[in-house]
């Protein structure tokens, strides 16, 4: 296993191997973090902190095959650190209208979906993102989340079902909106 | 279908990836690794022992005592306080009159229909005009009765209903029933989940005693928009549609964009179908729209003892307390997430009984912070001649020259992010030019907290700049590359780099939680409080 080899090498201080590990897992870890923290900046900070901590503590990792699970547990801790009692930072955006985030008045299908995804619990959200966006298998996610593959499959199926119902419902509503909803008062 | 949703998720989040600079920064600055150590187990044991000893020595803090004391419903406790009686006033657009045997009659479809408040310990009087009625509730009426009256009124289309509590001294304060008054009952509950938990009435005559109604796809029930208030019919219908199954509790889901009145009506229907308890839980996601629904009383939580915040006067004249309470109500209103619940003043401070699910820390922020000042100034960078001169003056113990001012870094700005953008060898002091175009809190309008992204739950405070100040803002921010210090309460909160002129609108972002964003927006929108208050007891 290539990844295991890299983990071993990085454990012995090989920076390039660690760089390869970063490129291999950073997006997945980022998705996990994005499902748990408050903003891109926070997610990136936590990502950096995660890999930094992984690097310094790698010599303590006894079994390289456990690397992913270990990495994700660091990530979850960092995400908690980020959200717990942290003071927000401020950045002023603005000027031209385009820079202002669009209001949510006219929902597109993406907005509907994102809203629904935001409503999932962090675990389910991370599962959906890892699987649908990063294309991980249930086993890989199970490894990362420290649960069984069947749990992941169930979580995933539930989440997708939730999204499907939500989307269906908003579609139906659009239709009822159009055909006017008449009610006797 | 699963594939389709997967593809949708994939394309919707395709651009969600860390920026490249993260990798570059990380790999450039890798610190030395730690050596492997075998000490961790003994250290862990030692830590556990230490914690155990500490816990044994100091014991647990006395939390929850207040909650335990308020053994009854909170609202009841206050409502039933001596010297007060409760009066509910319902204003409405439809004609209302007092009917036979003290019942309300409402004009609907050109006919008078009767609204019964039987057995709720209340009596009715006609208000000053025929469009107002006054419902007086017995002083000892249980909290649920108030709730039911509210629901019935919502059901019967009497929108703005506030309970006025009058003391014998003649002071009145509002127990906000928090039905939506701004958007009215037609305000859509957009993409909201309102769940109600129902329990069967313990009544021998009921057919479904011991079981309860489960409406898994109650969405259909709502979409039908059909009211089934007759309990017999409701049961028959639900049984026919195989929606009535034995279960302990039931849930009702309101589909997206249900107008609020329909929610209220449905709740009313369930209530009149003979369920004893009706709880809201699992509040919905877009709080603004759903506030109305969630702010309805929440007896389950309240029974556990919702937060009662007691603030004492630290500084100021007790005579100013009534005015303070008024201002706080306004703040709570603009925060868009707190009902004023029950906010009263006492001889030495104020007491705020929050509604259920409400954020006590937000309330605390709103009360304890007298006000905020907001200024924008351009910073003077350390390679500037002005900076050298002012730094020398400062070291010599002199005040800064006219048009310059030193500001301390606020907590926000102390984070690595903002600090890296500021001159750093000045002991966290930032020099700003203050003689330039003045933009303050008063220059802003439409200040609002907004959620800006869905995936991160990130919030921002956005605002527009008043027309007469737009020119000033543009002039202030004309030089690209300068840093604009945002000074909140005399401290620099951050100093972003200017990339373009600001003129009409701007947004302060950067990892705000909902609470922080709402607090800042509310503070920016309301005037300073005349007194200073501090939380004494929760």
Question: What can you tell me about this protein's structure?
Answer:
The complex is a heterodimer of chains A (185) and B (538). Chain A is mainly alpha-helical and 185 residues long. Chain A has two domains: 1-86, RNA polymerase sigma factor, region 2, helix turn helix motif (Rna Polymerase Sigma Factor, Chain: A); 104-185, Orthogonal Bundle (Arc Repressor Mutant, subunit A), CATH 1.10.10.10. Chain A contains eight helices and one strand; from the N terminus they run H-H-H-H-E-H-H-H-H. Chain A has helices spanning 2-11, 15-34, 40-57, 67-83, 109-119, 122-133, 138-145, 149-178; one strand spanning 91-95. In chain A, helix 2 (15-34) crosses helix 4 (67-83). Chain A is elongated and about 60 Å long. Chain B has 538 residues and is an alpha+beta fold. Chain B has four domains: 74-176, Outer Surface Protein A, domain 3 (Alpha-Beta Complex), CATH 3.90.930; 188-303, no CATH class; 307-371 and 528-537, Alpha-Beta Plaits, CATH 3.30.70; 374-516, Gyrase A, domain 2 (2-Layer Sandwich). Chain B contains 17 helices and 25 strands. Chain B has a five-stranded antiparallel beta sheet with strand order 5-6-1-7-8, with helices on one face. Chain B has a five-stranded mixed beta barrel with strand order 17-19-18-23-22. The model of chain B is unreliable at 54-93, 119-133, 138-144, 155-232 and 242-304 (pLDDT under 50). Strand 1 of chain A pairs antiparallel with strand 24 (505-512) of chain B.
